[in-house]
Automatic annotation (TrEMBL):
<feature type="binding site">
    <location>
        <position position="209"/>
    </location>
    <ligand>
        <name>substrate</name>
    </ligand>
</feature>
<comment type="pathway">
    <text>Nucleotide-sugar biosynthesis; UDP-alpha-D-glucuronate biosynthesis; UDP-alpha-D-glucuronate from UDP-alpha-D-glucose: step 1/1.</text>
</comment>
<comment type="similarity">
    <text>Belongs to the UDP-glucose/GDP-mannose dehydrogenase family.</text>
</comment>
<dbReference type="InterPro" id="IPR028356">
    <property type="entry name" value="UDPglc_DH_euk"/>
</dbReference>
<dbReference type="GO" id="GO:0003979">
    <property type="term" value="F:UDP-glucose 6-dehydrogenase activity"/>
</dbReference>
<dbReference type="GO" id="GO:0051287">
    <property type="term" value="F:NAD binding"/>
</dbReference>
<keyword id="KW-0119">Carbohydrate metabolism</keyword>
<feature type="binding site">
    <location>
        <begin position="216"/>
        <end position="222"/>
    </location>
    <ligand>
        <name>substrate</name>
    </ligand>
</feature>
<dbReference type="InterPro" id="IPR017476">
    <property type="entry name" value="UDP-Glc/GDP-Man"/>
</dbReference>
<dbReference type="GO" id="GO:0005634">
    <property type="term" value="C:nucleus"/>
</dbReference>
<feature type="binding site">
    <location>
        <begin position="169"/>
        <end position="173"/>
    </location>
    <ligand>
        <name>substrate</name>
    </ligand>
</feature>
<comment type="subunit">
    <text>Homohexamer.</text>
</comment>
<dbReference type="Pfam" id="PF03720">
    <property type="entry name" value="UDPG_MGDP_dh_C"/>
</dbReference>
<dbReference type="InterPro" id="IPR001732">
    <property type="entry name" value="UDP-Glc/GDP-Man_DH_N"/>
</dbReference>
<dbReference type="InterPro" id="IPR036220">
    <property type="entry name" value="UDP-Glc/GDP-Man_DH_C_sf"/>
</dbReference>
<dbReference type="InterPro" id="IPR014026">
    <property type="entry name" value="UDP-Glc/GDP-Man_DH_dimer"/>
</dbReference>
<keyword id="KW-0021">Allosteric enzyme</keyword>
């Protein structure tokens, strides 16, 4: 695993109070507490395609649990699920019950982030447990609270009804995604006015009512949760006949797509409005640093836009395998012709190979190692003018040195380039025209 600290935890506990088994039925029968932690992907077909959560794995788990269980057990949904999923699990249990079987259903959503999962579990901001308001439901909640209280302060353990717990997880991810889209919308304005989005983020983040977290402008958010959960929230609102609420949250996704498209257009425009046949180096393919996860990575979509224009991409990521990169870029919604991917995409073994003979270098993931590269050597082996597009504001501290080397720098939310090449966005990416001096008011005499 790439999650820091996980290996050490497993090694210290395995064989003591941590065991792994492929005998699922026996594990269920022997357990007092069962966590359902299966994937809940977005549906790829039928009603709600592309937005609704596919709960087939949740249902399969519920049916297997009720089939092999006996006695009293607490079944806890850990997966991110739409509101009232616990009710569906309970209906399956009630419809297949048998003598002496008592299954209680709880909601206990996880709030872990990839790359910091162990730390987030050991020192959580909060633990959320939802259950029935019946005596049996409260008994189950108390039992799970007792487990968490071994290391989590009681003040950080929140108990709610099941529906509030389920909705809180979706809402939390939606709010985090909203923060990113909000600052990204400001980054577009900054690039058109001469403001610096980092300075703006600092200024507004120091307001304690707003806070500074998740105000980092970038090429867009990715990962397995944000887009999936926001779209699930949108679908839920539409299903409940709340179109205005659905439209509000849809804008979070629309802004993320706009930011990706706008960044790709900026690359194309700066490269003399054509990238056909040009080598472009992409540094980073995972959706964020310290993980090999590429799900919904912005790098995939930047690659798509550039491949659509015929660019030759040389991609380097320290953790993502070549097979995964090719698989991601060969998906039908990314490339209609998998053979074209093999023609246009090369996965490089190191960043220097990726940049050799490139017209542009594009930073898509904020891996720390990219701050330590020998940019003098990279510049010497690139075609001139050598462009550097920083999609993560990773190299801000290096800008003076990079400019002295000779790079033409383009970064999110700031005008940095020393290039004289004008930036004219392509059609479909509007730009606000600002008149720095208001017209002189004529006075009648």
């Amino acid at each position: 695993s790439l999650s820091p600290g996980l290996k050490e935890v497993v090694e210290s506990c395995r064989g003591k109070n941590l065991f792994f088994s492929t005998d699922i039925d026996s594990a269920i029968r022997d357990a007092d507490l069962v966590f359902i932690s299966v994937n809940t992907p977005t549906k790829t077909y039928g009603m709600g395609k592309g937005r609704a959560a596919d709960l087939k794995y949740i249902e399969a788990c519920a049916r297997r649990i009720v089939e092999v269980s006996n006695g009293y057990k607490i079944v806890t949904e850990k997966s991110t699920v739409p509101v009232r999923a616990a009710e569906s699990i309970r209906r399956i249990f009630d419809s297949n019950t048998k003598p002496n079987l008592n299954l209680q259903v709880l909601s206990n959503p996880e709030f872990l982030a990839e790359g910091t999962a162990v730390r987030d579990l050991k020192e959580p901001d909060r633990v959320l447990i939802g259950g029935d308001e019946t005596a049996e439901g409260q008994r189950a909640i108390r039992a799970l609270c007792d487990v968490y209280e071994r290391w989590v302060p009681k003040a950080r353990i929140i108990t709610t009804n099941t529906w509030s717990s389920e909705l809180s997880k979706l809402a939390a991810n939606a709010f985090l995604a909203q923060r990113i889209s909000s600052i990204n919308s400001i980054s577009a304005l900054c690039e058109s006015t001469g403001a610096d989005v980092e300075e703006v983020a600092l200024a507004i983040g120091m307001d304690q009512r707003i806070g500074s977290k998740f105000l980092k402008a970038s090429v867009g958010f990715g990962g397995s949760c944000f887009q999936k959960d926001v779209l699930n929230l949108v679908y839920l609102c539409e299903a409940l006949n709340l179109p205005e609420v659905a439209s509000y949250w849809q804008q979070v996704i629309d802004m993320n797509e706009y930011q990706r498209r706008r960044f790709a257009c900026r690359i194309i425009d700066c490269l003399f409005n054509t990238v056909t046949g040009k080598k472009i180096a992409l540094l980073g393919f995972s959706f964020k640093k310290d993980t090999g996860d590429t799900r919904e990575s912005s790098s995939i979509y930047i690659s798509k836009y550039l491949m659509d224009e015929g660019a030759k991409l040389h991609i380097y990521d320290p953790k993502v395998l070549k097979e995964q990169i090719i698989l991601d870029l060969s998906q039908p919604h990314i490339s209609e012709d998998p053979h074209r991917v093999s023609e246009l995409v090369t996965v490089s073994v190191d960043p220097y190979q990726a940049c050799q003979g490139a017209h542009a270098l594009v930073v898509c993931t904020e891996w720390d190692m990219f701050k330590e590269l020998d940019y003098e050597m990279i510049y010497d082996h690139m075609l001139k003018p050598a462009f550097l597009f920083d999609g993560r504001r990773l190299l801000d501290q290096l800008h003076p040195r990079l400019q002295n080397i000779g790079f033409q720098i383009e970064t999110i939310g700031k005008k940095v380039t020393t290039s004289r090449i004008p930036y004219t966005p392509t059609a479909g990416v509007p730009r606000i025209s600002i008149n720095p001096e208001p017209p002189t008011k004529k006075t009648k005499v």
